[in-house]
Amino acid sequence: MPNKKHTPQTVARTVRERLRALADPAKAAGAERYFKETVKCHGASSAEVRGLAMELGRSVKAVWTVDDAITLCELLLRDKELESKAVGFLILAAFKKSFPARLFSRAKRWFAGNLLDNWASTDVFCGEVMGPFLLDRPEFTEKIKSWTSHPNRWVKRASLVSFIIPARRGRFLDAVYEISASILGVDDDLIHKANGWLLREAGKTDPLRLEKFLLGRGPGIPRTTLRYAIERFPEAKRKFLLTKTKR
């Protein structure tokens, strides 16, 4: 049981105070312009955010359970600023060896509730939390397929980006290609980019399978997805695939 100094609520307050102290309005304005979505930032750097998460994570690791980390994450995800959200799930990631099965449904609620409502928060959360979760609990690969049909764009993007780390290791490639194929018809540039990124990572361990998939789907693949997917191929192969898959 955490002491009064290290409850999720007190740590959340500490995070907010420390981030306000690091605030840089000029950097915040620049970062906010980088997104098409409306986001809020303190203006802290990535190194400062990760350093704060590491420092506070070390201070609670010995006295917290993973449930305390989940509570902190949810508290900070409700903040508007990207940095607060990031500290929350970076501290949660420190407990990845004890992620419970129920974290899957909780994460889906966070996405569906727009608590991770931009590509940066979605992508880092998936890399730090969802990827390790799936590597440890492969039975959830089937459940995440249903995320591709969810009306929320962040749930959709998470269905793809959650598999980036496993795909990079050559894991769950059958599921990766099934998910990729099922979402090709979605008209959303952020989904097209995420799908291409996932396919590119899958192709690192099996480029022939990726090439076969792209040729087989041909004109049905959005050009943004295709261009992302073929980035690692030699130039001649990229030109060949671009020509062969034209509508």
Short précis:
The protein is mainly α and 247 residues long. It has 15 helices and no strands. The chain has two domains: 1-98, Leucine-rich Repeat Variant (Alpha Horseshoe); 100-247, Leucine-rich Repeat Variant (Alpha Horseshoe), CATH 1.25.10.
| Shape summary | globular
* Count of strand segments: 0
Strand content: under 5%
Number of helices: 15
Poorly predicted residue ranges: none
The CATH architecture of the largest domain can be named as Alpha Horseshoe
Q: How would you spell out the order of helices and strands?
A: HHHHHHHHHHHHHHH
**Biggest β-sheet description:** none
What name does CATH use for the topology of the largest domain? Answer: Leucine-rich Repeat Variant
User: Residue share in helices?
Assistant: 55-70%
Distance between the termini: 60 Å
Task: Please explain how this structure is put together.
The protein is mostly helical and 247 residues long. It folds into 2 domains: 1-98, Alpha Horseshoe (Leucine-rich Repeat Variant), CATH 1.25.10.90; 100-247, Leucine-rich Repeat Variant (Alpha Horseshoe). The protein contains 15 helices and no strands. It has helices at 8-21, 25-33, 46-61, 66-77, 82-93, 103-112, 119-136, 141-144, 153-161, 164-168, 173-182, 189-205, 207-217, 223-229, 235-244. It starts with 7 loop residues before the first helix and ends with a helix.
Question: What is the fold's blueprint, element by element?
Answer:
Layout: H1 8-21, H2 25-33, H3 46-61, H4 66-77, H5 82-93, H6 103-112, H7 119-136, H8 141-144, H9 153-161, H10 164-168, H11 173-182, H12 189-205, H13 207-217, H14 223-229, H15 235-244
Helix pairs in contact: 1-3, 1-4, 1-5, 3-5, 4-5, 5-7, 7-9, 9-12, 11-12, 12-13, 12-14
